């Protein structure tokens, strides 16, 4: 009786069909990230921790207003517990935050009040009786607002008493609004905007310049975050 001989795969060979199937999710994810970078949704040099901070102001006004929604991957695995549940998803060990991007060419912020509160990491956080750290920043009061150029804010939540837009285009193609080629994404754009009684939960802010008049900054230990 003849013995059947098992077919051996030579060492060093790759099963290309299996490899191709395994690469599909990675390729799709890479394409999505490239698309987001191309539309200006991600600054490639800016890694977002996902730890939220609160900002309020009596007035936020500026020129060159563009606003659109996108998704930010974050580096802090625990950020989902600090943000509204509906704004976060975790897939494959990565947490993603749904945010609204607000971009202003120039901005003026009156009575700026900003706080960020986060747990102190272990091992120190495990032994301190007050294991939360609250950082508070105030600026732009006394009739001298804080100012910024090239301001971009990533925020999952914002409320305001009122907002006035001049020459607004709702539904403008995002690529066109950013000064590039059309890409089919939704945005709204206005020549200028004035937003009053602003309250905002943010996870990231970038600016070309930021002038904080009347700056006050403090850090304190807390039992719980407000």
Count of beta strands: 13
Number of helices: 3
- What is the string of helix and strand elements? HEEEEHEEEEEHEEEE
Alpha carbon gyration radius: 23 Å
In the residues, how many domains can be counted? 1
Average pLDDT, to the nearest integer? 82
| Strand proportion | over 45%
Largest sheet: 13 strands, antiparallel
List low-pLDDT spans. 18-45
Structural classification: mainly beta
Helix content: 10-25%
For the record, give the distance between the C-alpha atoms at the N and C termini, rounded to a whole number.
80 Å
What would the principal axes of the Cα set say about the shape?
globular
Explain what you see.
This protein is mainly beta and 226 residues long. It has one domain. It has three helices and 13 strands; from the N terminus they run αββββαβββββαββββ.
List the helices and strands and how they pair.
Elements: H1 16-38, E1 53-74, E2 88-91, E3 94-110, E4 112-119, H2 124-127, E5 132-139, E6 146-155, E7 157-159, E8 162-166, E9 169-173, H3 174-177, E10 186-202, E11 204-206, E12 209-211, E13 216-222
Antiparallel strand pairs: 1-3, 1-4, 1-10, 2-3, 3-6, 4-5, 5-13, 6-11, 6-12, 7-10, 8-10, 9-10
Feature tags:
13-stranded antiparallel β-sheet, single chain, mainly beta, 3 helices, 226 residues
Give a brief outline of the structure.
The chain is mostly beta strands and 226 residues long. It has helices at residues 16-38, 124-127, 174-177, and strands at 53-74, 88-91, 94-110, 112-119, 132-139, 146-155, 157-159, 162-166, 169-173, 186-202, 204-206, 209-211, 216-222.
């Amino acid at each position: 009786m003849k013995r059947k001989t098992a077919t051996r795969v030579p060492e060093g060979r790759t099963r290309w069909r299996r490899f191709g199937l395994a690469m599909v999710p990675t390729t799709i994810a890479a394409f999505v990230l490239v698309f987001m970078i191309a539309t200006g949704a991600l600054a490639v040099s800016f890694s977002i921790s996902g730890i939220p901070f609160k900002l309020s102001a009596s007035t936020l006004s500026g020129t060159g207003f563009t606003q659109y929604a996108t998704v930010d991957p974050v580096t802090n695995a625990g950020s989902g517990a600090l943000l509204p549940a509906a704004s976060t998803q975790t897939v494959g060990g990565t947490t993603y935050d749904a945010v609204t991007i607000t971009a202003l060419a120039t901005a003026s912020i009156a009575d700026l009040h900003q706080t960020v509160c986060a747990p102190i990491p272990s091992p120190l956080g495990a032994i301190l009786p007050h294991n939360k750290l609250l950082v508070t920043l105030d600026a732009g009061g006394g009739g001298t607002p804080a100012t910024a150029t090239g301001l971009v804010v990533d925020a999952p939540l914002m409320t305001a008493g009122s907002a006035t837009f001049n020459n607004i285009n709702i539904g403008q193609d995002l690529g066109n609004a950013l000064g590039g080629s059309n890409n089919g994404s939704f945005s709204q754009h206005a020549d200028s905007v004035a937003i009053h009684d602003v309250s905002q939960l943010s996870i990231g802010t970038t600016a070309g310049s930021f002038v904080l008049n009347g700056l006050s900054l403090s850090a304190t230990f807390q039992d719980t975050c407000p």
